[in-house]
Amino acid sequence: MAHTTYSFADVSMVISHPSKGQFVATGAGLGSISISMATDRSTHDVSADGSVMVSKIKGRNGNITVSAQQTSDLHKWLIKLFSYLENAPTAEWAKAAITIRSTSMQDLIRVTGVSFQKLPDRPFQAQGQQVSWVFMAADIDQAVA
Predict the structure, then answer these.
(1) In CATH, what number is assigned to the domain containing residue 129?
(2) Could you give the number of structural domains in the chain?
(3) Reading across the β-sheet that carries 96-102, which strands appear in turn?
(4) Domain-located, residue 102
(5) Which residues, 6+ apart, have CB-to-CB distance to 64 below 8 Å?
(6) Of 36, 60, 81, 90, whose CB neighbour count within 10 A is largest?
(7) What is the pTM of this model?
(8) Block means of pLDDT (10 residues each) for the chain, length 145 residues?
Protein backbone atom coordinates (compact mmCIF):
# COMPACT_ATOMS: atom_id res chain seq x y z
CA MET A 1 0.00 0.00 0.00
CA ALA A 2 1.39 3.40 -0.99
CA HIS A 3 1.54 6.24 1.45
CA THR A 4 2.66 9.83 1.52
CA THR A 5 4.21 11.94 4.25
CA TYR A 6 4.25 15.62 5.08
CA SER A 7 6.35 17.57 7.54
CA PHE A 8 6.37 21.30 8.14
CA ALA A 9 10.08 20.80 8.87
CA ASP A 10 10.49 20.32 5.09
CA VAL A 11 9.10 23.81 4.41
CA SER A 12 11.38 26.83 4.15
CA MET A 13 10.53 30.46 3.52
CA VAL A 14 12.73 33.36 2.50
CA ILE A 15 11.46 36.93 2.79
CA SER A 16 13.66 39.48 1.06
CA HIS A 17 13.78 43.17 0.27
CA PRO A 18 16.53 44.76 -1.83
CA SER A 19 17.14 47.50 0.75
CA LYS A 20 16.95 45.35 3.91
CA GLY A 21 18.32 41.93 2.92
CA GLN A 22 16.59 38.66 3.64
CA PHE A 23 15.35 36.44 6.44
CA VAL A 24 15.45 32.67 6.02
CA ALA A 25 12.77 30.89 8.07
CA THR A 26 13.15 27.15 8.38
CA GLY A 27 11.04 26.46 11.44
CA ALA A 28 12.42 28.44 14.39
CA GLY A 29 9.58 30.70 15.53
CA LEU A 30 7.52 29.97 12.42
CA GLY A 31 4.01 28.73 13.16
CA SER A 32 2.30 28.52 9.78
CA ILE A 33 2.15 29.88 6.24
CA SER A 34 -1.10 30.25 4.29
CA ILE A 35 -1.58 31.35 0.69
CA SER A 36 -4.89 32.77 -0.48
CA MET A 37 -5.51 33.74 -4.09
CA ALA A 38 -7.65 36.88 -4.52
CA THR A 39 -8.68 36.91 -8.18
CA ASP A 40 -11.16 34.53 -9.75
CA ARG A 41 -9.42 33.05 -12.79
CA SER A 42 -12.61 32.63 -14.78
CA THR A 43 -15.97 34.38 -15.09
CA HIS A 44 -19.11 33.54 -17.05
CA ASP A 45 -21.36 36.10 -18.68
CA VAL A 46 -24.81 34.77 -19.54
CA SER A 47 -26.81 36.50 -22.29
CA ALA A 48 -30.60 36.74 -22.53
CA ASP A 49 -30.78 33.62 -24.75
CA GLY A 50 -28.71 31.58 -22.26
CA SER A 51 -25.46 31.45 -24.20
CA VAL A 52 -22.40 31.68 -22.01
CA MET A 53 -19.27 33.70 -22.66
CA VAL A 54 -16.33 32.41 -20.61
CA SER A 55 -13.54 34.83 -19.71
CA LYS A 56 -10.06 33.66 -18.69
CA ILE A 57 -8.40 36.07 -16.25
CA LYS A 58 -4.66 35.95 -15.64
CA GLY A 59 -4.65 37.59 -12.18
CA ARG A 60 -2.32 35.81 -9.76
CA ASN A 61 -2.55 38.28 -6.88
CA GLY A 62 -3.46 37.30 -3.35
CA ASN A 63 -2.45 37.21 0.30
CA ILE A 64 0.21 35.38 2.27
CA THR A 65 -0.35 34.97 6.00
CA VAL A 66 2.69 34.11 8.09
CA SER A 67 2.19 33.26 11.76
CA ALA A 68 5.24 33.58 14.00
CA GLN A 69 5.88 33.36 17.72
CA GLN A 70 5.71 36.84 19.21
CA THR A 71 9.26 36.51 20.65
CA SER A 72 10.83 35.05 17.49
CA ASP A 73 13.61 36.54 15.39
CA LEU A 74 11.25 36.34 12.39
CA HIS A 75 8.68 38.58 14.11
CA LYS A 76 11.39 41.03 15.19
CA TRP A 77 12.81 41.16 11.63
CA LEU A 78 9.35 41.83 10.17
CA ILE A 79 8.78 44.68 12.63
CA LYS A 80 12.09 46.24 11.53
CA LEU A 81 11.20 45.81 7.85
CA PHE A 82 7.76 47.37 8.38
CA SER A 83 9.30 50.31 10.28
CA TYR A 84 11.81 50.90 7.49
CA LEU A 85 9.16 50.74 4.75
CA GLU A 86 6.76 53.00 6.62
CA ASN A 87 9.30 55.84 6.33
CA ALA A 88 10.98 54.85 3.04
CA PRO A 89 10.11 56.31 -0.37
CA THR A 90 6.85 54.93 -1.78
CA ALA A 91 8.76 53.08 -4.52
CA GLU A 92 10.20 50.77 -1.81
CA TRP A 93 6.81 49.68 -0.41
CA ALA A 94 6.09 46.67 -2.67
CA LYS A 95 9.63 45.53 -3.51
CA ALA A 96 9.63 42.60 -1.09
CA ALA A 97 9.55 39.00 -2.31
CA ILE A 98 8.78 35.68 -0.63
CA THR A 99 9.94 32.24 -1.72
CA ILE A 100 8.40 29.13 -0.16
CA ARG A 101 9.79 25.64 -0.74
CA SER A 102 8.43 22.30 0.40
CA THR A 103 10.84 19.55 -0.55
CA SER A 104 8.55 16.69 0.43
CA MET A 105 5.68 18.06 -1.69
CA GLN A 106 7.98 19.39 -4.44
CA ASP A 107 6.40 22.85 -4.18
CA LEU A 108 8.15 26.05 -5.17
CA ILE A 109 6.15 29.23 -4.70
CA ARG A 110 7.58 32.58 -5.78
CA VAL A 111 5.76 35.67 -4.59
CA THR A 112 6.62 39.16 -5.86
CA GLY A 113 5.23 42.65 -5.41
CA VAL A 114 4.83 41.93 -1.71
CA SER A 115 3.59 44.61 0.69
CA PHE A 116 2.37 44.60 4.28
CA GLN A 117 -1.40 44.75 4.67
CA LYS A 118 -1.03 46.23 8.17
CA LEU A 119 0.80 45.73 11.42
CA PRO A 120 -0.43 42.54 13.06
CA ASP A 121 -2.60 42.46 16.15
CA ARG A 122 -0.42 42.21 19.27
CA PRO A 123 -1.50 39.74 21.93
CA PHE A 124 -0.42 40.12 25.55
CA GLN A 125 -1.49 37.42 28.00
CA ALA A 126 -0.18 34.81 30.42
CA GLN A 127 1.07 32.51 27.65
CA GLY A 128 3.10 33.54 24.60
CA GLN A 129 1.16 33.68 21.35
CA GLN A 130 1.48 33.56 17.57
CA VAL A 131 1.37 36.84 15.65
CA SER A 132 -0.14 36.77 12.14
CA TRP A 133 1.45 38.95 9.48
CA VAL A 134 -0.65 39.41 6.33
CA PHE A 135 1.11 40.36 3.11
CA MET A 136 -0.56 41.41 -0.12
CA ALA A 137 1.11 40.03 -3.23
CA ALA A 138 0.94 41.25 -6.82
CA ASP A 139 2.00 37.87 -8.24
CA ILE A 140 1.94 34.38 -6.73
CA ASP A 141 3.62 31.84 -8.98
CA GLN A 142 2.94 28.31 -7.74
CA ALA A 143 5.00 25.68 -9.52
CA VAL A 144 6.19 22.18 -8.87
CA ALA A 145 9.92 22.21 -8.13
Answers:
(1) 2.30.110
(2) 1
(3) 21-25, 11-17, 96-102, 107-116, 130-144, 62-69, 30-37
(4) yes
(5) 33, 34, 35, 36, 98, 111, 114, 134, 135, 137, 140
(6) 81
(7) 0.86
(8) 76 94 85 91 94 94 94 94 96 96 86 95 81 96 74
